[in-house]
Write a structure and sequence with these properties.
Layout (H helix, E strand, L loop, with lengths): L3 E4 L2 H6 L3 E3 L7 H8 L9 E4 L2 E3 L10 E5 L6
Parallel strand pairs: 1-5
Antiparallel strand pairs: 1-2, 3-4, 3-5
InterPro entries: Beta-grasp_dom_sf (IPR012675), MOCS2A (IPR044672), Mopterin_synth/thiamin_S_b (IPR016155), ThiS/MoaD-like (IPR003749)
Family: Belongs to the MoaD family.
Keywords: Nucleotide-binding
Length: 75
């Protein structure tokens, strides 16, 4: 039982990971971050679960995909 955690853009380079599976199912998105990295979560990081934006207190279930990424800007 686990979830897949993905990092995108600059986070991928900072964390040094593109994708990792958690050792257990974390209760929330924030706990997923804490299971896979020893770094504090930057304030502006966004999260999605199964391709939908969520808050960091969003509950997780076995098999979920969690994605962390910086805000997207364009011009």
């Amino acid at each position: 039982m686990s979830v897949t955690v993905k990092f995108f853009a600059g986070l991928r380079e900072q964390i040094g990971l593109e994708e990792i599976r958690t050792p257990t199912v974390p209760a929330t998105v924030q706990e997923a971050w804490q299971q896979v990295t020893d770094r504090p979560r930057p304030a502006n990081v966004l999260a999605a679960v199964n391709h939908e934006y969520v808050a960091f207190d969003h509950a997780l279930a076995d098999g979920d995909e969690v994605a962390f990424f910086p805000p997207v800007t364009g011009g």
